[in-house]
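Trying the structure run again after the queue cleared.
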Amino acid sequence: MIEISPFRKQIEERIGPIQHLAAIEKGFSIEKKFKVLASQSDYLVRLSPLQSASSKEQEFDIMRQLYENGVQCNQPILMLQNDETEAVCTVYSYLAGIDAEENITKLPPESQYTIGVDAGKDLKLINSLPGETNNWKERKCKKHERYVNQYFERGYRFKNDERILRFIETQYDFSEADQDYLQHDDFHLGNIVIDCGRYAGVLDFNRYDWGDPLHEFVKLEWYNWPLSEAFARGQVEGYFGERKLSEAECLQLSVYIAMSIVSTTVWTLEFHPHTWVETETRIRAILDHFDYFDSIRPEWAT
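Done. C-alpha coordinates:
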Protein backbone atom coordinates (compact mmCIF):
# COMPACT_ATOMS: atom_id res chain seq x y z
CA MET A 1 0.00 0.00 0.00
CA ILE A 2 1.34 3.44 -0.95
CA GLU A 3 1.86 5.66 2.09
CA ILE A 4 2.82 9.30 2.56
CA SER A 5 5.36 8.62 5.33
CA PRO A 6 8.39 8.00 3.03
CA PHE A 7 7.85 11.47 1.54
CA ARG A 8 6.91 13.36 4.69
CA LYS A 9 10.36 14.77 5.53
CA GLN A 10 10.91 16.15 2.02
CA ILE A 11 7.40 17.58 1.89
CA GLU A 12 7.86 19.34 5.23
CA GLU A 13 11.18 20.78 4.09
CA ARG A 14 9.20 22.56 1.36
CA ILE A 15 5.90 23.53 3.00
CA GLY A 16 6.68 23.39 6.72
CA PRO A 17 5.46 20.98 9.44
CA ILE A 18 2.32 19.03 8.56
CA GLN A 19 -0.32 19.79 11.17
CA HIS A 20 -3.15 17.65 9.83
CA LEU A 21 -3.63 15.02 7.12
CA ALA A 22 -7.04 13.96 5.73
CA ALA A 23 -7.71 11.40 3.00
CA ILE A 24 -9.86 12.47 0.04
CA GLU A 25 -12.09 9.57 -0.94
CA LYS A 26 -14.14 11.04 -3.79
CA GLY A 27 -13.58 9.83 -7.36
CA PHE A 28 -12.62 6.68 -9.22
CA SER A 29 -8.86 7.33 -9.45
CA ILE A 30 -6.41 4.64 -8.28
CA GLU A 31 -4.33 7.43 -6.74
CA LYS A 32 -4.41 8.17 -3.03
CA LYS A 33 -5.20 11.82 -2.32
CA PHE A 34 -4.82 13.85 0.85
CA LYS A 35 -5.65 17.34 2.04
CA VAL A 36 -2.65 18.52 4.02
CA LEU A 37 -2.75 21.40 6.49
CA ALA A 38 0.64 23.04 7.05
CA SER A 39 1.51 26.14 9.05
CA GLN A 40 0.99 28.61 6.21
CA SER A 41 -1.55 27.02 3.88
CA ASP A 42 -3.44 23.91 2.71
CA TYR A 43 -2.05 21.54 0.10
CA LEU A 44 -3.12 18.61 -2.05
CA VAL A 45 -0.88 15.53 -2.01
CA ARG A 46 -1.32 12.77 -4.58
CA LEU A 47 0.37 9.35 -4.36
CA SER A 48 0.66 7.24 -7.50
CA PRO A 49 2.33 3.96 -8.52
CA LEU A 50 5.92 4.30 -9.73
CA GLN A 51 5.04 3.04 -13.22
CA SER A 52 3.02 6.21 -13.72
CA ALA A 53 6.06 8.44 -13.04
CA SER A 54 6.45 9.61 -16.64
CA SER A 55 2.75 10.46 -16.96
CA LYS A 56 2.70 12.24 -13.58
CA GLU A 57 5.74 14.29 -14.58
CA GLN A 58 3.99 15.36 -17.78
CA GLU A 59 0.81 16.19 -15.85
CA PHE A 60 2.83 18.23 -13.34
CA ASP A 61 4.47 20.21 -16.15
CA ILE A 62 1.16 20.75 -17.96
CA MET A 63 -0.48 22.09 -14.83
CA ARG A 64 2.48 24.40 -14.25
CA GLN A 65 1.94 25.85 -17.74
CA LEU A 66 -1.81 26.16 -17.21
CA TYR A 67 -1.38 27.85 -13.83
CA GLU A 68 1.08 30.33 -15.35
CA ASN A 69 -1.41 30.96 -18.19
CA GLY A 70 -4.10 31.97 -15.70
CA VAL A 71 -6.16 28.78 -15.40
CA GLN A 72 -7.69 28.48 -11.93
CA CYS A 73 -6.21 25.12 -10.99
CA ASN A 74 -3.94 23.64 -8.33
CA GLN A 75 -0.46 25.19 -8.46
CA PRO A 76 2.26 22.52 -8.78
CA ILE A 77 4.64 22.73 -5.81
CA LEU A 78 6.77 19.57 -5.58
CA MET A 79 7.24 16.18 -7.23
CA LEU A 80 9.05 13.29 -5.53
CA GLN A 81 9.85 9.68 -6.37
CA ASN A 82 10.68 6.78 -4.05
CA ASP A 83 12.03 3.65 -5.72
CA GLU A 84 11.89 1.54 -2.54
CA THR A 85 8.16 2.06 -2.04
CA GLU A 86 7.56 2.21 -5.80
CA ALA A 87 5.60 5.42 -5.49
CA VAL A 88 5.42 8.93 -6.90
CA CYS A 89 4.29 11.89 -4.80
CA THR A 90 3.05 15.21 -6.19
CA VAL A 91 2.25 18.23 -4.04
CA TYR A 92 -0.06 21.03 -5.20
CA SER A 93 -1.72 24.05 -3.70
CA TYR A 94 -5.23 23.31 -2.44
CA LEU A 95 -8.27 24.87 -4.12
CA ALA A 96 -10.42 26.27 -1.33
CA GLY A 97 -14.16 25.90 -1.74
CA ILE A 98 -16.93 23.34 -2.02
CA ASP A 99 -17.90 20.69 -4.55
CA ALA A 100 -19.94 22.24 -7.39
CA GLU A 101 -21.75 18.99 -8.17
CA GLU A 102 -23.18 18.81 -4.66
CA ASN A 103 -23.86 22.49 -4.15
CA ILE A 104 -24.55 24.38 -7.38
CA THR A 105 -28.31 23.81 -7.34
CA LYS A 106 -28.47 25.55 -3.97
CA LEU A 107 -27.52 28.79 -5.73
CA PRO A 108 -29.87 31.01 -7.77
CA PRO A 109 -29.90 30.33 -11.54
CA GLU A 110 -28.09 33.62 -12.22
CA SER A 111 -25.15 32.51 -10.07
CA GLN A 112 -25.13 29.05 -11.67
CA TYR A 113 -24.95 30.70 -15.08
CA THR A 114 -22.10 33.04 -14.08
CA ILE A 115 -20.13 30.12 -12.63
CA GLY A 116 -20.65 28.31 -15.94
CA VAL A 117 -19.36 31.30 -17.90
CA ASP A 118 -16.17 31.43 -15.83
CA ALA A 119 -15.73 27.67 -16.10
CA GLY A 120 -16.14 27.88 -19.88
CA LYS A 121 -13.45 30.56 -20.06
CA ASP A 122 -11.07 28.37 -18.06
CA LEU A 123 -11.80 25.40 -20.33
CA LYS A 124 -11.02 27.58 -23.35
CA LEU A 125 -7.64 28.42 -21.79
CA ILE A 126 -6.96 24.74 -21.13
CA ASN A 127 -7.79 23.83 -24.73
CA SER A 128 -5.50 26.56 -26.06
CA LEU A 129 -2.36 24.63 -25.09
CA PRO A 130 -1.04 23.01 -28.30
CA GLY A 131 0.34 19.49 -28.45
CA GLU A 132 2.90 17.84 -30.68
CA THR A 133 0.50 15.38 -32.33
CA ASN A 134 -2.37 15.54 -34.82
CA ASN A 135 -3.60 11.94 -34.80
CA TRP A 136 -6.26 12.05 -32.07
CA LYS A 137 -9.16 11.18 -34.37
CA GLU A 138 -7.38 8.04 -35.54
CA ARG A 139 -6.67 7.04 -31.94
CA LYS A 140 -10.25 7.83 -30.96
CA CYS A 141 -11.64 5.65 -33.75
CA LYS A 142 -9.47 2.67 -32.79
CA LYS A 143 -10.51 3.01 -29.16
CA HIS A 144 -14.16 3.12 -30.22
CA GLU A 145 -13.75 -0.04 -32.29
CA ARG A 146 -12.34 -1.86 -29.25
CA TYR A 147 -15.31 -0.72 -27.16
CA VAL A 148 -17.76 -1.91 -29.82
CA ASN A 149 -16.17 -5.36 -29.81
CA GLN A 150 -16.38 -5.48 -26.01
CA TYR A 151 -19.96 -4.24 -26.12
CA PHE A 152 -21.09 -7.16 -28.30
CA GLU A 153 -19.36 -9.59 -25.95
CA ARG A 154 -21.73 -8.53 -23.17
CA GLY A 155 -25.33 -9.50 -22.66
CA TYR A 156 -26.68 -5.97 -22.38
CA ARG A 157 -28.00 -4.14 -25.47
CA PHE A 158 -29.42 -0.63 -25.37
CA LYS A 159 -32.41 0.26 -27.54
CA ASN A 160 -31.71 0.87 -31.24
CA ASP A 161 -28.01 0.16 -30.78
CA GLU A 162 -27.49 -0.89 -34.40
CA ARG A 163 -28.99 2.39 -35.56
CA ILE A 164 -26.67 4.38 -33.29
CA LEU A 165 -23.59 2.38 -34.28
CA ARG A 166 -24.47 2.99 -37.92
CA PHE A 167 -24.77 6.71 -37.22
CA ILE A 168 -21.23 6.72 -35.80
CA GLU A 169 -19.86 4.64 -38.66
CA THR A 170 -21.32 6.85 -41.38
CA GLN A 171 -20.89 10.28 -39.78
CA TYR A 172 -17.50 10.15 -38.07
CA ASP A 173 -15.18 12.74 -39.60
CA PHE A 174 -11.71 11.22 -40.02
CA SER A 175 -10.03 14.43 -41.17
CA GLU A 176 -7.36 15.32 -38.64
CA ALA A 177 -6.78 18.86 -37.41
CA ASP A 178 -3.44 20.51 -38.09
CA GLN A 179 -2.63 20.12 -34.42
CA ASP A 180 -4.05 18.44 -31.33
CA TYR A 181 -4.75 20.56 -28.24
CA LEU A 182 -4.82 19.78 -24.55
CA GLN A 183 -8.01 18.14 -23.30
CA HIS A 184 -8.89 18.07 -19.62
CA ASP A 185 -11.09 15.12 -20.66
CA ASP A 186 -13.12 15.08 -17.45
CA PHE A 187 -14.48 18.63 -17.27
CA HIS A 188 -17.74 18.43 -15.34
CA LEU A 189 -19.29 19.76 -12.14
CA GLY A 190 -17.77 16.96 -10.05
CA ASN A 191 -14.32 18.38 -10.82
CA ILE A 192 -15.23 22.02 -10.29
CA VAL A 193 -14.91 24.00 -7.06
CA ILE A 194 -17.08 26.96 -6.07
CA ASP A 195 -16.45 29.38 -3.23
CA CYS A 196 -18.79 32.07 -1.88
CA GLY A 197 -21.12 31.54 -4.84
CA ARG A 198 -18.36 31.97 -7.43
CA TYR A 199 -16.27 29.73 -9.66
CA ALA A 200 -13.04 28.84 -7.81
CA GLY A 201 -11.31 26.44 -10.18
CA VAL A 202 -11.05 23.03 -11.82
CA LEU A 203 -9.52 19.84 -10.41
CA ASP A 204 -8.16 16.48 -11.56
CA PHE A 205 -6.13 16.71 -14.73
CA ASN A 206 -4.96 13.08 -14.46
CA ARG A 207 -7.08 12.03 -17.46
CA TYR A 208 -5.63 14.69 -19.75
CA ASP A 209 -5.19 13.94 -23.45
CA TRP A 210 -4.28 15.75 -26.66
CA GLY A 211 -6.96 16.01 -29.31
CA ASP A 212 -10.13 17.74 -30.45
CA PRO A 213 -11.27 20.36 -27.87
CA LEU A 214 -14.88 19.84 -28.97
CA HIS A 215 -14.82 16.47 -27.24
CA GLU A 216 -14.77 18.27 -23.87
CA PHE A 217 -18.50 18.98 -24.27
CA VAL A 218 -19.43 15.28 -24.10
CA LYS A 219 -19.28 15.56 -20.30
CA LEU A 220 -21.52 18.63 -20.43
CA GLU A 221 -24.22 16.48 -22.03
CA TRP A 222 -23.74 13.64 -19.53
CA TYR A 223 -23.35 15.55 -16.28
CA ASN A 224 -23.64 19.34 -16.40
CA TRP A 225 -26.85 19.80 -18.39
CA PRO A 226 -28.94 17.30 -16.34
CA LEU A 227 -27.87 18.94 -13.08
CA SER A 228 -27.84 22.65 -14.00
CA GLU A 229 -29.09 23.93 -17.34
CA ALA A 230 -28.04 27.43 -16.30
CA PHE A 231 -24.45 26.31 -15.66
CA ALA A 232 -24.34 24.40 -18.96
CA ARG A 233 -25.55 27.39 -20.97
CA GLY A 234 -23.04 29.58 -19.16
CA GLN A 235 -20.22 27.14 -19.94
CA VAL A 236 -21.10 27.24 -23.63
CA GLU A 237 -21.21 31.05 -23.69
CA GLY A 238 -17.97 31.38 -21.71
CA TYR A 239 -16.25 29.09 -24.20
CA PHE A 240 -17.75 30.09 -27.56
CA GLY A 241 -18.88 33.63 -26.84
CA GLU A 242 -21.96 34.76 -28.75
CA ARG A 243 -21.40 32.52 -31.76
CA LYS A 244 -23.51 29.39 -32.21
CA LEU A 245 -22.00 26.00 -32.89
CA SER A 246 -22.01 25.24 -36.60
CA GLU A 247 -23.87 22.27 -38.03
CA ALA A 248 -20.52 20.54 -38.67
CA GLU A 249 -19.52 21.04 -35.02
CA CYS A 250 -22.88 19.76 -33.79
CA LEU A 251 -22.58 16.68 -36.00
CA GLN A 252 -19.07 15.91 -34.80
CA LEU A 253 -20.06 16.45 -31.19
CA SER A 254 -23.15 14.23 -31.52
CA VAL A 255 -20.92 11.46 -32.91
CA TYR A 256 -18.61 11.81 -29.91
CA ILE A 257 -21.62 11.61 -27.58
CA ALA A 258 -22.90 8.52 -29.38
CA MET A 259 -19.46 6.94 -29.02
CA SER A 260 -19.50 7.76 -25.30
CA ILE A 261 -22.70 5.76 -24.84
CA VAL A 262 -20.91 2.63 -26.06
CA SER A 263 -17.74 3.21 -24.03
CA THR A 264 -19.63 4.17 -20.86
CA THR A 265 -21.80 1.06 -21.12
CA VAL A 266 -18.75 -1.21 -21.35
CA TRP A 267 -16.73 0.65 -18.69
CA THR A 268 -19.58 0.79 -16.17
CA LEU A 269 -20.58 -2.85 -16.52
CA GLU A 270 -16.97 -3.96 -16.15
CA PHE A 271 -15.66 -1.70 -13.39
CA HIS A 272 -18.62 -0.13 -11.57
CA PRO A 273 -21.70 -2.31 -12.10
CA HIS A 274 -23.19 -0.99 -8.84
CA THR A 275 -23.74 2.36 -10.61
CA TRP A 276 -25.41 0.80 -13.65
CA VAL A 277 -29.00 1.83 -12.83
CA GLU A 278 -27.99 5.50 -12.70
CA THR A 279 -25.86 5.17 -15.85
CA GLU A 280 -28.66 3.49 -17.80
CA THR A 281 -31.04 6.30 -16.82
CA ARG A 282 -28.58 8.86 -18.16
CA ILE A 283 -28.11 6.91 -21.40
CA ARG A 284 -31.85 6.88 -21.99
CA ALA A 285 -32.04 10.62 -21.31
CA ILE A 286 -29.27 11.32 -23.84
CA LEU A 287 -30.87 9.13 -26.49
CA ASP A 288 -34.18 10.92 -25.94
CA HIS A 289 -32.44 14.32 -26.03
CA PHE A 290 -30.98 13.53 -29.46
CA ASP A 291 -33.98 11.49 -30.64
CA TYR A 292 -31.59 8.58 -31.21
CA PHE A 293 -29.41 11.02 -33.19
CA ASP A 294 -32.02 11.95 -35.74
CA SER A 295 -31.32 15.36 -34.15
CA ILE A 296 -27.71 16.52 -33.89
CA ARG A 297 -28.05 19.94 -32.21
CA PRO A 298 -28.28 19.70 -28.41
CA GLU A 299 -30.68 22.06 -26.67
CA TRP A 300 -27.85 23.77 -24.80
CA ALA A 301 -26.23 24.72 -28.13
CA THR A 302 -29.28 26.64 -29.40
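The chain has a mean pLDDT of 95. Worth checking whether this holds up in the mutant runs.
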